[in-house]
Structures are given as C-alpha cells and as structure tokens.
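Deadline looming. Please check this record:
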Amino acid sequence: MGNDLAAMHPVPDAICIKHGDKPFEHLERKHVAAICVTRIDAPGAANKIVKAISALFDGAIEVGEAKAHPCNGTKRLKSGDGFHT
C-alpha cells in the first residue's frame, strides 16, 4: 500500500493546491465528477484522482472525521486498449 500512495503523491498535491481551501465534509459525488472532467482527455489521470480522493476518505471515515464517501458510485473511465504488460 505504501508504494501506491507514493505513486499517487503528485495527485493529492495537485488536488490540495486547487481545492484545499474547501471544506471536505461538503464534498459530494458531483464535485468529484467535476474535478475528473478537468482530466477527461486523460482517463487514467481522472481515475487516479478518484483513487486518491477515495483513499483520503477511506482514512477519514476510519478515524471518524468523515461520514459519507463521495467516491461511492463514481464510475471509472475506460483508458482504452493501450499496452498491457
């Protein structure tokens, strides 16, 4: 899990820079979708945004800082065929 978080580090930083002044308890699924639309040209990047926000809220719910999970029900975008290794 530590490697996943290290790989996602630039994503949470970018989210914090753009949206860090907003109260997280008011974040809803429509807001997550609006953030992802900014990266509609890169579905993999949009999915990383959802993954980072989801990880943040998993932890917040676990420690009692959040009650609702805004990523539940959010559909991931298809990245296309690409290269598989």
Observations:
- The chain has four helices and no strands.
- Residues 43-62 form the longest helix (20 residues).
